Amino acid sequence: KELLNVVDRPILSYIVEEAREAGIEHIVFVTGRSKGAIEDYFDHQIELEAQLEAKGKTAILEMMNAELAKAGEMSFTRQMQPKGLGHAVWCARDIIGHEPFAVMLPD
């Protein structure tokens, strides 16, 4: 459901955009089983990018590249058992450390 499209892009894309606009510099995703597509969404899609470039669809390519994670901007960790929101935050404790953080839910 996090990758469900709203208008022209996934819900999660709006959350990341909002986080960036709020000045959040490092985004930590706590995911569960079968959520690898979330990490893949913010990574390069080499074949698709090559096809878009070959077809001269630079506007779409630029929009895709704007969504990509910058180096070190995103981290992903797993919540091995669905034990609730507090547990999800606890799963990210080693990444967050003692820094201030926000919890943003796409649903």
Word description of this protein:
Strand 1 and strand 2 form a beta hairpin. It contains six helices and four strands. The model has no long low-confidence stretch (mean pLDDT 92). The protein has 107 residues and is an alpha+beta fold. The protein has a two-stranded antiparallel sheet with strand order 1-2. A two-stranded parallel ribbon has the order 3-4. The protein is elongated. The chain starts with a strand and ends in an 11-residue tail after the last helix.
What's the arrangement of secondary structure elements?
Elements: E1 5-6, E2 9-10, H1 11-21, E3 27-31, H2 36-41, H3 46-54, H4 58-67, E4 74-78, H5 85-91, H6 93-96
Quick overview:
The chain is an alpha+beta fold and 107 residues long. It has helices spanning 11-21, 36-41, 46-54, 58-67, 85-91, 93-96; strands at residues 5-6, 9-10, 27-31, 74-78.
Q: Which key features would you list for this structure?
A:
two-stranded parallel sheet, single chain, 107 residues, 6 helices
Number of strands: 4
Q: Please identify the oligomeric state.
A: single chain
Judging from the principal axes of the Cα atoms, what is the shape? elongated
Percentage of β-strand residues: 5-15%
Structural class: alpha+beta
Give the topology string: H per helix, E per strand.
EEHEHHHEHH
| Low-pLDDT ranges | none
Radius of gyration: 15 Å
Strand order of the largest sheet: 1-2
In helices, the fraction of residues equals: 40-55%
Distance between the termini: 8 Å
Average of the residue pLDDT scores: 92
Largest sheet: 2 strands, antiparallel
